[in-house]
Amino acid sequence: MDTLEFIRLLLLAIHLLGLAAIVGVFMVQLRANSGFRTGLLLGGAITQVVSGLALVGIREAGDLEVNNVKVAVKLVIALIVLVAAIIAHTSQRRGRKVKPAFHTAGGLAVVNLLVAVFWA
Length: 120
Ligand code: HEM
Fold this sequence. Notes:
This protein is mainly α and 120 residues long. Helices cover 80% and strands 0% of the residues. Bound molecules: protoporphyrin IX containing FE. Protoporphyrin IX containing FE is lined by residues 8, 12, 15, 19, 48-49, 52-53, 55-56, 59, 71, 74-75, 78, 81, 109, 112-113, 116-117.
């Protein structure tokens, strides 16, 4: 395995850990009304945007195929997830309603997972 391929797989592992952080905390707190773990949600959302962009870069560097339309769709959804996670986190700190933003972030992350898996 060459260095480029190793880095791609490392980034993919980080990408899947970011996904696990968002979807994991979303599922665990699906029926919660308070005490939302918004820090984990926000960390996962940042991880997805950063590692996703890095994956595109490393694939291009290694002359691997990149579906630009799929990447654009995923990026838009991931940015909405990030904004929702920021709103959830700041709302939590200010004692405001967290649930709508928390569910938006978690739900759209699941949508992005489905886009990633089913869009060939
Ligand atoms: C909540 C946000 C996201 C989720 C849940 C997510 C989910 C996934 C999943 C499950 C995979 C593995 C399956 C596959 O290869 O298609 C994957 C791969 C990938 N994702 Fe994402 N993703 C997210 C955000 C992004 C963003 C923002 C980008 C780029 C701007 C991106 C770019 C990629 C790329 C290039 C791969 C292929 C990696 C490879 O096999 O070399 N993702 N993503």
